[in-house]
C-alpha cells in the first residue's frame, strides 16, 4: 500500500510546505504521544525516502522482514517504495519526527542544479546503514522547519531558510550515516543493557547502575538518557513490561499479582498502570487475549 499521510491531530502535526511550493516533494511530521497507539500498518512511499528521527522513547519498525528497535537520538531510513510498518507493535509513547522527500529521477532536487542534484541524490541513495545514531542538532533543525511554517506572515526569505534547513538536515544525515560508534561507548551500552536484562527481577536503583560504570548518579542519568533516548527508570519499566508479557504468555497459571511482585513492582495496581501505559492494554486483558489465540 502506498501512503502519504496528511492527518494532523492534537498529538501529531504534519506539514506539506505548500506555501513554499514544495507540496508533493517534501512532507514533515511529528508526533508526541503520552500513551501507546495502534500499530502503523505496512505501507510505502512511491519514489520517496523517509527519514525518522526519534527524540524520546522507543519504537520498532520492520523493513524486508527485519525488525529495528530505534531509541531517542536514532535516525531510521526507508528508501523509495520500501514497504515498512511497526510489525504488530504499537506506536510507542514518545516523540518522533519524520521527513519524507521525493527522490526525482530526472528533474532537479530541491533548489540544486542538475549536477548538484545528481551528487546529492547519489549520496542519499548510497547510504549503507538505515539505522544509526543522530544528534540533537537534527531535532533543532526540524523544530525550526515547523516554526518557519507556522509564521503568520510568509516572507520570501522563509522559503530560502526552509530549503537550507532541509538541505542541511539531509547533509547531516549523510554525514552521520558514515560515523562509527566508539568502541568504549558501545561496550558501556552493552554492559549496562546486559546487566539490566540479567537482573530484571531484582531491585535496580540508579546508585547501583551508576557505580557499575564508575559514574556519579547525575552523570549516569545524563549519559543514559543521551544513549538510550529515555531516563533509566523508563527503560527499566519498559524492560520489566516486556518480561511480564513473556510470563503472561508462558505461564498462564500464574496470577497477575504474582508476576507483579516477581518483577519488583510495589503492587499489582501499579504494575497494571505501568503495563497499560506501555502496551495499551491491562495485564489481565493481555493474558486473556493470549489464552484465546
Protein described:
- The chain is α+β, with helices and mostly antiparallel strands.
- The protein has ten helices and ten strands.
- It folds into two domains: 166 residues, Jelly Rolls, CATH 2.60.120.280; 110 residues, Homeodomain-like (Arc Repressor Mutant, subunit A).
- Helix content is 45%, strand content 20%.
- Strands 1, 2, 4, 5, 6, 7, 9 and 10 form an eight-stranded antiparallel β-sheet that branches. Strands 3-8 form a two-stranded antiparallel sheet.
- Helix 5 packs across helix 6.
- It is elongated and about 65 Å long.
Class of secondary structure makeup: alpha+beta
In total, the number of strands is 10
Helix content: 40-55%
Q: Would you identify the CATH architecture of the largest domain?
A: Sandwich
Low-confidence stretches: none
CATH fold topology of the largest domain:
Jelly Rolls
Largest sheet: 8 strands, antiparallel
CATH superfamily of the largest domain: Regulatory protein AraC
Order of helices and strands: EEEEEEEEEHEHHHHHHHHH
Total separate domains: 2
Assigned CATH class of the largest domain: Mainly Beta
Strand residue content: 15-25%
Tell the overall outline: elongated
The radius of gyration over CA amounts to 21 Å
> What is the CA–CA distance across the termini?
27 Å
Discrete helix count: 10
Mean pLDDT: 89
Give the topology, please.
Elements: E1 12-15, E2 26-33, E3 37-39, E4 48-63, E5 66-71, E6 74-78, E7 84-85, E8 90-91, E9 94-102, H1 114-125, E10 131-133, H2 136-150, H3 156-177, H4 183-198, H5 206-212, H6 217-228, H7 232-250, H8 256-262, H9 268-279, H10 283-292
Antiparallel strand pairs: 1-2, 2-9, 3-8, 4-5, 4-6, 4-7, 4-9, 6-10
